[in-house]
Please model this.
Amino acid sequence: MPFAHIGVFLMALGFAVLAISIAKLLLKSSRTISTLSHTVQAVESKLDKVVLELEATIAETEKTAMDVEIKLEATTGLFHAVKDVGETTAIISNNLHTRTERYAKNTKLSGTLPFIRGIQFSEFGIGLIRSWTRGRNASN
Model:
């Protein structure tokens, strides 16, 4: 019977060692989970701040994009006016060239060439002024 008592004592001793080991394991796990909980809370608060800052950045970006869009729309008329001025200048220049060639080839009008050139340049100037006025009115 003494062997039975020794066996029971060893079993009790083994159970006590097992219980102490499990208790230590659970205590360490509890500390780890507590530390993890604090870390998650800190990350959550930082993430909230980052989200708020990101929302503010997005709002500022939207304002800037709208401002750029408004300014681009304002300059559209100017670019159309410049295009019209260029087209008008090209048309006037082509007409002036054609008329100049025609008058240069006409031998009957050789003495009137300076007057004709003056008229041509005045027509060119008037065309430029009209184009400029149209462009200014379009941009306003």
